[in-house]
Amino acid sequence: MNFLKRSLVDEYTRVSGRHDDPKVYGGPAGDPGLIGPGSVSWEIHSDMSAVGLAGVAAITMEILHPSVMAGVHDRSNYRTKPFERARNTAGYVFATTFGNTDAAEALIARVRRMHERVEGVRPDGTPYRAMDPTLIGWVHTCIPWAVMRIFERYNRPLDPSERDRYLAEQAIIGHKGGAGEIPVTAADLEEYIEEMRPRLAVNEQTRQFFEFLLESPLGAKGPAPLARQINRFDVHAGISAMPEWARQLTGYDHSPRFQRLAVEPYLRTVSRSLRWAFGVPPCRAMAEARVAAVVQQPRPAPVAGLA
Ligand code: HEM
């Protein structure tokens, strides 16, 4: 791999993780995993830039629900280990798409156990629990929604049947994670978002989360003031994948001029260069090899006297 490709891949994996564990992406010969080859999910999630760049938009949409924000505020280590969270959530997307069936099921079960311990009371006194099927449904839906928006903007448009297939494929994972009613078509998705909008809000916890996201240097390299500016730009680029009403709700929207002259060219370049650098990412290549591997048939025992 040439130097430039290597540095792009290293920079991506430093923040979003490697996702090349043979125990997850290798495994039983012929095992398609939970979704399988030929799916729209295998194509979309092979674009590491779409999953990576969708991270900020997805988490920002998720925490606009005050119950999710309260759970993350009270019980997650996002302030001390922001990248562990990002890597593990990206890992959840890659492993449930390309992982072998046992590894994917085991990860979903492990994360369910973690969520079973997450419960509390929001600042407005409303009790919450992470395993509430509506909350799991919201957090689930924000992921394929954000990934699909980024993929269609910076890779290729999907036709209506591909959008429906992608959402239906991802709903398999959502339901295994404990989600209640979630969209399985693009039309459902529109309706679902309109239903959820009145429940979304920004409170002091959300402001602290955005402050953390925008003010800390996070993964950006270079002297702190510069790193902070680079990170701030990255977060704005991520937030730009959200719908306008949601960006405005956050209070961190930016001008269409800034979007056109700075953010769009940046996201287009990052997206193209990551696809060039990764080619077929390891998680996909290993899954393809696993599915293509021939199940070894046990050799028939030699018939006595004929050996
Ligand atoms: C399908 C929906 C969801 C997905 C895919 C998801 C994904 C994840 C993943 C992968 C982890 C493990 C991270 C790790 O290993 O460090 C995690 C932990 C966590 N999630 Fe979720 N999550 C979902 C829904 C929710 C909801 C609805 C809430 C809050 C109400 C929530 C709050 C948390 C918290 C607080 C943790 C950290 C738990 C701990 O460290 O013990 N998640 N989530």
Question: Could you characterize what this model shows?
Answer:
With 307 residues, the protein is mainly alpha-helical. It has a domain at 21-201 and 279-292. It is 65% helix and 2% strand. The protein is built from 15 helices and 2 strands. The protein has helices at residues 3-16, 22-25, 40-44, 48-62, 66-75, 82-98, 101-116, 133-154, 160-176, 186-196, 204-215, 224-239, 244-250, 256-278, 282-292; strands spanning 119-121, 127-129. The chain has a two-stranded antiparallel ribbon. A hairpin with a 5-residue loop joins strand 1 (119-121) and strand 2 (127-129). Helix 1 packs across helix 14 (256-278) and helix 4 (48-62) crosses helix 8 (133-154).
Q: How much strand?
A: under 5%
User: How many alpha or pi helices?
Assistant: 15
Total beta strands: 2
Q: What overall form do the CA principal axes indicate?
A: globular
Taking pLDDT < 50 over at least 5 consecutive residues as the criterion, the unreliable ranges are none
Average pLDDT figure: 93
Q: End-to-end span in angstroms?
A: 50 Å
Helical proportion, percent range: 55-70%
How is the largest sheet built, in terms of strand order? 1-2
Unique bound compounds: protoporphyrin IX containing FE
Largest sheet report: 2 strands, antiparallel
- Element-level helix/strand string: HHHHHHHEEHHHHHHHH
Q: Structural class of the secondary structure composition? A: mainly alpha
Query: Over all CA atoms, what is the radius of gyration?
Result: 21 Å
